[in-house]
Write a structure and sequence with these properties.
It is built from six helices and no strands. The protein is mainly α and 102 residues long. The longest helix has 14 residues. It is globular, with a radius of gyration of 14 Å.
Length: 102
């Protein structure tokens, strides 16, 4: 509803109840990103990836954060992993970065 601060609070409560649910961290990472708390967003995406390595969205989201941090190599690796997991947007971002680097 456009209230990332409230979302963070709700996701904190959810994480206390079910700390192994990767989607909590992925979604809280999105909220942190919208609040420009990039380090916290990156940390949550890292946790989401550890908890579920088969969902492309945490890789895609972490790729965008890595781009904000000027970490093109890390962003490319995340987008490539997301692409391998079937995310077309990650494929497009990987190709765009590959073209920009070369």
């Amino acid at each position: 509803a456009g209230r990332p601060d409230k979302a963070v609070s709700d996701f904190n409560n959810a994480a206390a109840l079910k700390p192994s649910w990767y989607a909590i961290y992925n979604n809280r990472g999105l909220a942190y990103d919208r609040l420009n708390l990039i380090d916290k967003a990156l940390s949550d995406y890292d946790v989401a990836v550890v908890l579920n390595q088969n969902d492309p969205s945490p890789y895609r989201n972490r790729g965008f954060v890595n781009m904000k941090l000027n970490q093109a190599g890390r962003a490319m690796a995340d987008f490539e992993r997301g692409c391998l997991l079937g995310d077309g947007f990650s494929c497009a971002m990987s190709q765009t970065l590959r073209t920009a680097v070369h």
